[in-house]
Design a protein that fits this description.
Elements: H1 7-11, H2 16-38, H3 49-54, H4 58-61, E1 84-86, E2 91-93, E3 97-101, E4 108-112, H5 120-128, E5 146-149, E6 154-155, E7 158-159, E8 172-175, E9 186-196, E10 201-210, E11 213-225, H6 239-255, E12 265-268, H7 274-288, H8 318-329, H9 337-350
Parallel strand pairs: 4-12, 5-11, 5-12
Antiparallel strand pairs: 1-2, 3-4, 6-7, 8-9, 9-10, 10-11
Helix pairs in contact: 2-8, 7-8, 7-9
Pfam families: Y_phosphatase
Organism: Mycena maculata
Domain Tyrosine specific protein phosphatases: 243-341
Length: 352
């Protein structure tokens, strides 16, 4: 682990506004293309077809999936969206979730919106099924064993997420599948719940089984971080707890009973972009500098943006490069400038 802050981080304050402006310009282009898809418009002449198709969100815009998106303007890219698959029935189900790979930490995540009542069954089915990250092709099927939630169910009087497991230990909820899917209902039971104050976390052990086959049970860890407000960042006094929470998430995921020593983590806030993107970016950069263990099955991005390379100033700014990379994989990641600033702040604090 390095003990002194790298030179690029020390110098980053002098060009952060420029980095912010370039990141915003590139996301504005992506957003304009997504808007065309939302309105079911064809690619205008000034946008090359390959770029238009690269940022396609067609599946999320399809009428059959309209009620499965928490926000009308947040839909996953077709090329990175996570498939909920039923190999027996040969059915692929829609979930507003995206595969995201850390650029510098090299670990796979699944970034997702908070479940809705109509998507709770598909969300839990994703946890129950074997999954395989897009790269590398040799990666063995694994399973989600850790779910991170960065939003409370209700914030500021508004519903931000729907609870899909009970609040009382020993109690169960049964989720029927969405209309049109002929699968069995899922029973979800809260096995254990503990408060971890230093990480502002409620850690829950949750089990899932098919209602008709309760002997086949999947157990996962659910970690709720309680100190991160919507559209913002944790207060200064809570930022130490966020670092503790990130470490707790990583260690919990490595302790789960799984053939994969470090399976992909399912992480979400409300829309699955602002707090979610910030959390992944911080984790990646902490991992890259030795503050988190290395990814057990490291992967490297093998694609380049059709928007072209980033300016030379980004060569020595890993935060900017990480954020742009995440925005290539899921729309709108790291929504607020304050969230971008938080990535720099927490990485600097790690070296103190």
């Amino acid at each position: 682990m390095t003990t002194t802050a790298p030179l690029w981080l020390s110098k980053s304050h002098s060009h952060q506004k420029y980095i912010q402006s370039i990141l915003q310009q590139r996301e504005t282009i992506r957003s304009s293309i997504r808007s065309l898809h939302l309105r079911k418009r064809e690619s205008p002449q000034e946008i090359p077809r390959k770029i238009f198709d690269y940022y396609s969100i067609a599946e999320g815009c399809h009428r059959r999936n309209g009620d499965k998106n928490r926000y009308v303007d947040v839909k996953p890219y077709d090329r990175t969206r996570v498939l909920v698959e039923d190999p027996v029935k040969g059915i692929q189900r829609y979930l507003n979730a995206s595969w995201c790979l850390e650029q510098f930490g090299h670990k796979w995540w699944i970034a997702a919106q908070a479940p809705l009542p109509v998507t709770a069954h598909a969300f839990l089915s994703l946890i129950c099924q074997p999954i395989r990250p897009p790269l590398p092709k040799s990666h063995q099927p694994t399973g989600v064993r850790t779910v991170v939630q960065l939003t409370r169910l209700v914030e500021g009087g508004r519903r931000k997420a729907h609870g899909y497991f009970p609040s009382d230990v020993g109690q169960s909820l049964v989720h029927a599948p969405e209309a049109g899917y002929p699968g069995a209902a899922l029973r979800v039971t809260l096995v254990e719940s503990v408060d971890i104050d230093e990480a502002c976390c409620i850690k829950s052990t949750v089990s899932v089984s098919f209602e008709n086959h309760r002997e086949n049970t999947i157990t996962f860890q659910h970690l709720l971080y309680t100190a991160w407000p919507d559209q913002g960042v944790p207060e200064l006094e809570d930022q130490k707890s966020l670092i503790a929470f990130i470490r707790l998430v990583d260690s919990t995921n490595r302790q789960t009973a799984s053939a994969d020593p470090d399976p992909p983590i399912l992480v979400g806030c409300s829309a699955g972009i602002g707090r979610t993107g910030t959390f992944i970016a911080i984790s990646s950069l902490l991992r890259a500098h030795g503050f988190l263990p290395k990814a057990a099955s490291p992967s490297t991005l093998s694609w380049s943006s059709p928007l072209g390379p980033l300016p030379a100033a980004f060569d020595e700014d890993l935060v900017g490069r990480e954020v742009d990379s995440l925005r290539e994989q899921r729309p709108g990641m790291v929504q607020q400038i304050s969230q971008l600033d938080l990535i720099y702040t927490l990485l600097e604090a790690a070296f103190v």
